[in-house]
Amino acid sequence: MEIALIINPSRPYQICAPGAISVLWKAWRESRARFFSALVLLTSLVVYAVLTSPGFLAHYNARFPDKPLLYSVYVWTGLFHYALQGLWVLAALVVALGGLAREKATGVALFTLGLPVGRLRLFLIRAAMAWAESIVLGLTSAMLIPALSLLVGEAYPFPQALAFGVWMSVAGFVILAFGLLLSEIFEGEFTAPVVGLCSLTAIFLGYRSHTLRGWNVFDVMSATASINPHTQLLTGTFHWLDLATCLLFSIVLLFTAGAVVQARDF
Questions:
Q1: Prediction pTM value
Q2: CA dihedral for 180, 223, 51, 66, sign (positive or negative)
Q3: Dihedral of the CA atoms 240, 241, 245, 246 (nearest 10)?
Q4: How many CB atoms within 10 Å of residue 179?
Q5: Are residues 18 and 10 in contact, defined by beta-carbon separation less than 8 angstroms?
Q6: What does the pLDDT profile of the chain (266 residues) look like in tens digits?
């Protein structure tokens, strides 16, 4: 037990170090069930939304013939700005769960701390794995849209879908960092997911229903300020300051989570 507690490499911020590959593999094994479950849910949502779009558009345009709904507007409003983004937010939170706090509650934290990797590096490796998984979730679901659109006789530009997917995943890093922080604060099996899911759902629906107003990360994730108001496609002018603000908040949350990991008594 003493060996497990005193092992602490001199360079805790170096991810690629002896033992890091084993820890990375451990992080993948622990999160892969959550990752694949999230991937299935996101894929199912996109498949349903695209395959049912002809019927929805036909009904809508028949009801409002003077204001026809474009397919690109349907995709952005229904997916990138609402359903797909909301489900991706919850998926990013879920893949961020785990960590030493949870392992302490289950009694396996000392085994993990016995690995030749410092506790801060353990956290950073887990964070890197979670971010990689969230990016794959965002890009995979986004790129399905133009591919499936061909099956229903519609066309959605691949570059647009790729750009929306990348922008959502990068700006949404703040959501992932929030989940990582919660996972290192709460030890209970359900405490972190319940707190995270309830708070994020309430805030997301608050902004989408316009109950809450002002700058918010969800509008940044859907590039609301960078789209054409008529086609709701990207115009090519991105608001980098908004993205930088999201990344700054992400870094603050990550540093806070790292401080919690360093200060906790295992």
A1: 0.88
A2: positive
A3: -20
A4: 30
A5: no
A6: 333 333 344 444 444 555 678 888 888 988 999 999 999 999 999 999 999 999 999 999 999 999 999 999 999 999 999 999 999 999 999 999 987 766 666 656 555 666 666 778 888 999 999 999 999 999 999 999 999 999 999 999 999 999 999 999 999 999 999 999 999 998 877 899 999 999 999 999 999 998 989 999 999 999 999 999 999 999 988 899 999 999 999 999 999 999 998 887 66
Q: Where do we find the tokens 């170096």?
A: 14
